[in-house]
Amino acid sequence: MCHGIMKPTYKRSDVIMAQTVVSVWIGNTDSEEKLEAYTEPVYSEDGADISAPFLEDFGIDQDDFDEDFFECAMHAAPTDSLAVLLAGCSYDDTVIPAMQAQTGDKLPFPCNAMILLYDFAYTGGIAEKSGFRFLGSTAAETDA
Description:
Layout: E1 9-12, E2 15-27, H1 32-39, E3 42-43, E4 49-50, H2 53-57, E5 70-81, H3 82-86, H4 92-103, E6 106-118, E7 128-129, E8 132-143
Antiparallel strand pairs: 1-2, 2-6, 2-8, 3-4, 5-6, 7-8
């Protein structure tokens, strides 16, 4: 993770673009409330921030990424298409093709939820936990 370090930039269609890494998890959940409970930090009685269950499951330290670069969403129906699942995510015009180049469009199982961490390359050894599976990390273009 490279907080505060300038990302390489290049020009595309007169818009300056930056390269970032996106880590993608796929899975299933029963409701948006359950997805939010899984991904939101828990607070102790004294107000201290305790890691989110998702971060605990995958061994991610919440200090290793910026929470402003975290995204999750749930669809009403499961899909086995990566493009359908990730449609509407931030920078989907570059994230989807970059992930498809790595994994293809067919997901390993029908999913209705996604979790994305931008500017974070997951290298943990935990592949699957609590109904979510790490799909991969890829470079993607973002607005500079």
